[in-house]
Amino acid sequence: MKEYGYCRISTPQQSIDRQERNIKAKYPEVHISKEAFTGTKREGRKELEKILKAVQPGDTIIFDSVLRMSRNATEGIALYEELYNKGVELVFLIRKSVFLLVI
User: Fold this and answer.
1) What residues are paired with 102 via a beta bridge?
2) What pTM was estimated for this model as a whole?
3) Beta bridge partners of 73
């Protein structure tokens, strides 16, 4: 079982360090993939696509927040279901805010 961390910023001027620190704090051995990509679609996120091609049943993908996986609910739910059906666990780190995922 492998653990993959995914960090994404929208512009190169933003810092990705916080996301990486948050993930590594809970999963110190995780392999982190990082990219700067803006947009509302999954297409074009080369690092995320590499993870999605590599994951196997029993693997885990860790995101600093649900917004790092998807920018809209429709795409997010579809990706969640695809990975769930494949046996991949998704982890979304939650900071002092309330998060509710309704499927």
Assistant:
1) none
2) 0.81
3) none
pLDDT value of position 75: 83
Contact residues for 76 (Cβ-Cβ < 8 A; gap 6+): 66, 69, 70
8-66 confidence digits (pLDDT tens):
888 777 889 999 999 999 999 999 999 886 655 556 678 999 999 999 999 999 998 87
Rounded Cα distance between 54 and 66, Å, is: 20
Burial class for 13, CB neighbours closer than 10 Å (0-12, 13-18, 19+): exposed
Phi-psi region of 13 (alpha: psi -120 to 50; beta: other; left: phi over 0): alpha
* Distance from C-alpha of 4 to C-alpha of 48, rounded to nearest angstrom: 10
Q: % helix / strand / coil in the chain, to the nearest 5?
A: 35, 20, 45
Contacts for 15 with CB less than 8 Å, ≥ 6 apart: 9
